[in-house]
Amino acid sequence: MWRRPLRTGKTGNTWYEISPRRAARLDTKKHREAERLFLAEGRAPIQESTVPPVRLFETEEEVRRVSTLKTPTGPVGVFPFLDVSGEELLSARDRIVLLHGVQDPGNVGTVIRSAHAFGAGVALSKGCADLYNPKTVRATMGSIFHAPVAREIETLEFLGRAPGAGFTTAAAIPERGETPAAVFGERVVVVVGAEGSGLPEEVVEACGARVSVPSRAASLNAAVAASILLYQAYMRVLG
Description:
Distance between the termini: 38 Å
Strand order of the largest sheet: 8-7-6-10-9-11
Number of domains: 2
Shape: elongated
CATH topology of the largest domain: Alpha/beta knot
CATH superfamily of the largest domain: SPOUT methyltransferase, trefoil knot domain
Helix content: 25-40%
């Protein structure tokens, strides 16, 4: 497990101590954005980390003060932001899932976990759950350190740039779309909306294709739909 000295943060030219009190404030987005730091809780996510934590809290007293859980489950690490730009995502991955307006942190975290499993990247539109919300981070189960994620993406702008980078773009719709096998090419951006509201018509129209997951249910949870489509894209490449 990563271990770092107490004084490791830096703002401008001033080094500072990340105390338990200061770390606990990272529970709120305002402080996360100001510090560009986030919390990862539990032994498994910390062991999955590919970068050392800025600070690691392990004693029972410190963990209790820092944890966002009523019943802490293990050490808490403070990590620097990991997200990439939309341009980096388009140049780094052949499979991308763009979540549009998915506000549930659990769904966002689960999709990041699936993206890690199937070698994909994730783009989060403006209005999605915060990537660094502790609930989102927990739901990734450590995959936040492995799958590249771009956040605060303008969906229509991203879709406009994707074909120039060699991507097919496909909007996930509940029914009457084509099958994944008929749509997915070597490089694909799949756009998935929230289960209740789905995708706005202008987003669907901005995509080159429409894709549906054959299902007996009226609709699928966003994380389930995205995971199935990522798997289908992954299998398309494996051939």
